[in-house]
Design brief:
Component of the heptameric LSM1-LSM7 complex that forms a seven-membered ring structure with a donut shape. One of its GO terms (molecular function) is mRNA binding. The chain is of the alpha+beta class and 136 residues long. The protein has a domain at 2-92: Roll (SH3 type barrels), CATH 2.30.30.100. It is built from two helices and six strands. Strands 5-1-2-3-4-6 form a six-stranded mixed sheet. The longest helix is centred in the C-terminal third of the chain and has 30 residues, at 95-124.
Length: 136
């Protein structure tokens, strides 16, 4: 009966080794690479890694190579469908061309989140992220 219980720990990553994965980090970065290793804390080692940024209907990639990711920074981990990857309706452009637009989008999102946190704190009594009660 225990064999029917799905893995809910880092052991569930065993089938993902040597496969192309997408990793979304807490700071919003999106990394594509081949998962080579992991440990009990879900720390990940990605090989042949690229960071991808988006703006509207275009994207750009920057080579980052071998990447070690601390498990607590992973928001999402998913396998990339190699057949469907080429069918994405986005146009690829140079990194340097897209970076200013991406930074502007990121700054706008950060300001919006800060304003939302301020309103929640002042009007609804929520604590700010990283504030009292947010530690462990």
């Amino acid at each position: 009966m225990d064999s029917l219980i799905p893995f809910t720990t880092s052991g569930s990553l065993v089938d993902c080794v040597d496969r192309k994965m997408l990793v979304v980090l807490r700071d919003g970065r999106k990394l594509f690479g081949v998962l080579r290793s992991y440990d009990q804390f879900a720390n990940l080692v990605l090989e042949d890694t690229v960071e991808r940024i988006y703006h509207q209907d275009v994207f750009a990639e920057q080579w980052v190579g071998l990447f070690l990711i601390r498990g607590e920074n992973v928001v999402l981990l998913g396998e990339v469908d190699l057949d469907g990857e080429d069918e994405v309706p986005l146009r690829q452009v140079e990194w340097d061309l897209l970076l200013p637009y991406h930074k502007r989008d990121t700054d706008v999102k950060k300001r919006r989140e800060e304003l939302k946190a301020q309103v929640l704190h002042e009007q609804k009594g929520f604590s700010k992220e990283g504030g009292e009660g947010d530690g462990y």
